Structure formats: C-alpha cells, structure tokens
Model the fold of this input.
Amino acid sequence: MSQSRRFCLVLCLFAFLSGGSSALAQPATEAAPVGRNPYPGQFVAPSLEGGTEWLNTTGPIELPDLRGKIVILDFWTYCCINCIHILPDLKYLEKKYPNELVVIGVHSAKFENERDSENIRQAILRYEIAHPVINDSNMVVARKYGFNSWPTLVVIDPEGKVVGTRSGEGHRELLDQVVGQLAAYHRAKGTLDEKPVHFNLEKEKVDPTPLRYPGKLFVDLPKSRLFVSDSNHNRIVVSSLDGTLIDVIGTGQIGANDGGFTEATFDHPQGLQLVGDILYVADTENHLLRTINLKTRQVATLAGTGQQGSFRGRGGKLRQTALNSPWALQELQGTLYIAMAGPHQIWKHGLKSDSIEPYAGSGREDILDGPRFEAALAQPSDITTDGRMLYHVDSEGSAVRKIDRGTQGGVQTLVGPHDLDKGASLFTFGDRDGVGDEVRLQHPLGLVWHNRALYVADSYNHKIKRVDPITRTCVTWLGTGERGNSLSPVQLSEPAGLAIAGDQLLIADTNNHRILQVDLVSRQTRELIIRGLTPPAAAQPTQDDMFRGETHQVEATTIKPGESLEVRINFSLPIGHHLNELAPVVCKLTAEPGQTIIPPEFLAERHTAESLETAATLQVPLTSTSGSTRLTLTVSYQFCRLGKGGVCRFATQRWEIPVSVAAGGVEQLALQGSPQQ
Done:
C-alpha cells in the first residue's frame, strides 16, 4: 500500500545523516574511506516489545540480542502488492550478506483478517519468507518507529542505532550500498558480528502436500479438463473433472525456462486462460505472460522482459515491455485482458498482434469510477466476462467493478465503497451483505460469471458471495466466515480462484491447499482429490559441504567391547544459553577405510543426538571385539538464550579420535567443545 496510514505519528520519521533527511541517502559514487562512518546512527532504536506474537523463530527477539548485526525492519502487510514486490530485494540482501544482516518483518495489518497470527503464518509460508516476523497487530511497534505507509524499511546499525528509513519499493541498489558500506566500516571498527545466526522457520513445521497454495483455476468443459495454477509448487496441474491426473507442466523449481513440460519453470503462476490448444499463464513473480501449447507440449514466453515494469507503463512490443505482477487473465473476442495487479490497471493484448498495452485504470491506487483511463483501480486480482462486459475485483479496495467495453465505456463499481475522499475507499471494508455501496467485502481475490450472476471469492472473509450485477445485490453464498477446513458446515481459508464446470462451482481453497467442488443448486460440497498427484521433488542442496568449524585432536582412547559406545559431547556455551530445544544436534561419524569396529551403514548416515541444555549424547553401535581406527565426529548444533530465544547461533565442531577396542576400555567417551561466544 502506498497510501498513507491515517493515524497520528508518535515519533517523527528518523533522520538520516546530520543534514536531517528522514530517508536513506542515495548511493555514493565511491565507498566511504575507512575511518569515517558512512551512515552515522542518530539514536538508539526503539525496542520491539508490544507485538502480539513472533513467527518464523522460536521466541521473542530483543534488539540487544542482535548487537553487532546490521538489522533491517520491514514494516509490511501481506495483502499489499508493494510489500510483496520488496520481498525479492530482501531475499537478495539476505543471500549476499548472510552473516552481516538480519531482516525482521514487522507485520502491521491493514485488514482485520491480517491481524490474526495464523493468517500471517500462512502468508509467511506462501511468500517463502526466511526471516523472523512479529505480529504487530495493535501497531505498537509501528508507532514507535513513526510508520505511515506500506512498505517502510528501517536500517539499524551494528551498534543498535537507527541510520535511516525508506518507504515504497525499488530500493535494492540503495540498500545494497548501505548494508555493504556499513558492514565494511563496522568490520574495520571491530563492531561487526559475523557469526551465523539461525531462526527456526515455519516451513520446518509443515508437511508437503500435493497442491501448495493453489491460486487460479480454468475449466475446459468440452474436454472435461481442469487446469490449476499450483502456485507455490511453481507448476500447472492438469486433471480431469473427476480427479484423474492428466499432466504436470513445470519442474516445480523457480525459474523462467521455456521448453518441454518436464523442463519448463515458473515463478508462482496465477491466472490461466485456454484459447484453442494454447493455455495462457500469468507467470506472476516472473512478471511474464507464458504460453503452453498443449499439442506440442512446449512452454514459451509471450510477453514481458523478466523485470518488474514501472508504474503507469505505456506498453509496447510483447517481449520489449516490462510487466508488473500479472495476476489474472480473460480472453474475449480475440483479446486477452490482463489484471495487472502491480500498476493497478487492466491491460490488453490482441492475440493476433505483437503488442500489449494498458486498457483501463489511471495507475492511481484508489476506487474511483469514471472513463476507463481516468478511473482508479486498486490491485485488480481477478477478471471475468459475461460475453459483453468485463468484470473484475479490486482486492485492495474490496470492490467488484464493471468495465464497459464500448468506445465511451468506463469503470463502474457494482458493490463496495468508491469515490470517497482522500483514498478512504481503500480502508473501508468488512463483511456485510446488501445492495451497492452499502456492501462490505474484505480483500476479494476471485471472480467468475455464471448464469447472470457473479460469484466472488471474498478471500479475507473466508466466504463465497453472489452478486447480481443488475440489482447490485450481494449475498453470502458459501462459508461460515470462520477460517477452517470443515465440509459440513463448509469452511474456507482465503480462497483465491473460482471456475464453473457445468452445474458445479470449483473453488481454489488456497490456504487449505485443496480444490472444492460445489453443486450450484444444493451447495453440497466435496474435495476434488487429484489422484496420483505428488509434490515436486525437492531442490538438490547446493551448499558447500566443506567444514569451516573448529577441529579438536583427542588423545588415543581404548573402548570396551560391547554393543555400543556412548559418546557424550559437553558444549561450552555463553552464560544463560542452552542448546535450541527445537533444533536437532546433528552428528556425522566417519572412519578409516577397511575398519571393522563400526557398521558401515551407521557411518553412511547423519544421526540426531539426544540433547539437554548444554550436552548431547550419541549411541554408536560396535561390531568387533578388537581392532583400531581413527574416527572423525562432526557435530552441528544451535544454541540460544535459555534454549528458547528468538535468535539462535549456529555452530559446528569436529573431533579427531584415534580409538582401539580392547578389554578394560571405557564405555563412555566424553568430548569437550570449545567455548562459544
């Protein structure tokens, strides 16, 4: 959201540099010389106390725990397309500065539904966020930092002082410069802590599912086919309407590769539209339109450069025009209409042309009716047609709109707020049936036309609603309004896609990772299980296995013959720190070739040791009553404040141990770790 949040600022926006600017300065042309602080801190950063709950970590984080790290606070709300757009920038910085930088998301909700920690947890999983997030549901932390718009980034230096803020998106280069120069300065000063930290992420707590956050649906009724954008699996799934798996298009890995079905890659695709044998795909996070030729089984790129387009772009040649989060598609009379969520517009592409261009929306984010290019839209997220008119949902404005395609046509709001002063339509939402302007929705993401009515996925109300476009009446059609997965009564969880299959309504029940089939007359509901569908293969690890920890040389030890040897590792941790209760102590034991003391199958695997507070125990099986070898034990572990702190350190140590088996030897081998800071 780029609109200002209307609450009184408790603190002014923080100054940057002695000149008093409230924003981060633009990158210098040359790095600051060693000895001069390139970005002096202005004052100590306010605490992060006051949030409802911490997510993506084991417990609350206090800024003093991160002293020595550069910290970026990301004030965001998960509905917001601008907030979504900066996540790749933050991931880039986290990858480039893994030991220097810690990002903390401060989720400051716009919609009521976004105040719920479980819904935020689902957003963290859906957006694949790998840093801690605090649910600041009451805006306590936001007010401490003078927040007034989404997204806002605050940079804190390794000495715990705020150095500047920046609002909006598109700041990767600036932040890269700031973090790089801060790291260089504080490294030279000796105030940079480059020891790795680890956070226990929400993704480590969930099991794989055949579908993962399915987004949009398309039904090919003549051939009884269903197309599903399996968004977080980065693929398109094709099944019959009775649940028989037909095809999977895409490897499941993130990318933008064209090619055959088993070679192509996507990045969180959404909208789908079939025209003849060509399936059009809104490849949302690649900022591309893709085509899938179902006859030749080839995926190709139709439009976009792969870079996010600017706001209020003018369009142009297909492959020379940068797109901005294409979210949904609708073909009508040879024209493909695109709900372009990023610039708050509807775009169009004549299927026989080589160009793409805006069709409706000024680019201003608001709900304003009027002529097509004067009207304001707010993150259009789905689009449908009755064969003559276009209809779309503006998710950030919680409204259902109509677009007249005539030469004098314009945009009209059917249900929901519109044309309110100072952008107030963007903050007018709820759950109220009724007529026209009195209707209240909450971030609707799905829309489909059927039999003179519009069915709306009122996503943040966890409902399906039915709108009569003539009378402008809106009624709840399905769902209790409570998040859940029951089928009797029917509960939904942020549904995002709808399609009609004869006398059935199909629902992408997104956060429940399922497709529902609903009889349009009786409203009887069942889950459509796609038989034979499995999650994509996990990406192969690419991390460097080279050991970088500390190695201890242990004196030669004689061990007693028997069934096993108990190895006890005593860790020397900082005062007040314990082993992380939620993370395994992972052990890998190797030995010299040809040894007969330990079973080869035990040596081939990694093992989890039993752990408690500051020690861990590993039982090593023995197979011989005599012999000798040299063992190498590598142990990886995490430790944090009292074993439950939000900031956990990651460490690895190794012991080299010459051993022999003989009567009179020890039954337990005690190893001592080196002190950790």
